[in-house]
Write a structure and sequence with these properties.
CATH superfamily: YhbY-like
Order of helices and strands: HEHEHEE
Oligomer: single chain
Number of helices: 3
Number of strands: 4
Largest sheet: 4 strands, mixed
Strand content: 15-25%
CATH topology: Translation Initiation Factor IF3
Length: about 100
């Protein structure tokens, strides 16, 4: 689990990122979760945008994605979800203690 301090740090790191995935009408599916896992392994920190036509609540989408990709949910702000997962091969982000 991330501490409040670590979440604040990750939020500041994510601020300048643009969303790499969009969740639309189809909602969350296995293929999307797999792709998100792969991108998280490469980048560690990503944003996901929830489109207006998505039938699920954005918090439900955030929960499904973080559980599916075994990632930490950093923040849900507006229709944007910020996810973090420490990379095994490609560690770039050093979290504060």
């Amino acid at each position: 689990m991330l501490t409040g301090k670590q979440k604040r740090f990750l939020r500041s790191q994510a601020h300048h990122l643009t969303p790499v995935f969009q969740v639309g009408k189809g909602g969350v599916n296995e293929n999307m979760v797999k792709q998100i896992e792969d991108v998280l392994e490469a980048r560690e920190l990503i944003k996901v945008s929830v489109l207006q036509n998505c039938e699920e609540d954005r918090y439900t989408v955030a929960e499904e994605l973080s559980e599916g990709a075994k990632a930490e949910l950093v923040q849900v702000i507006g229709n944007t979800i910020v996810l973090y997962k420490e990379s095994r091969e490609n560690k770039q982000i050093v979290l504060p203690n």
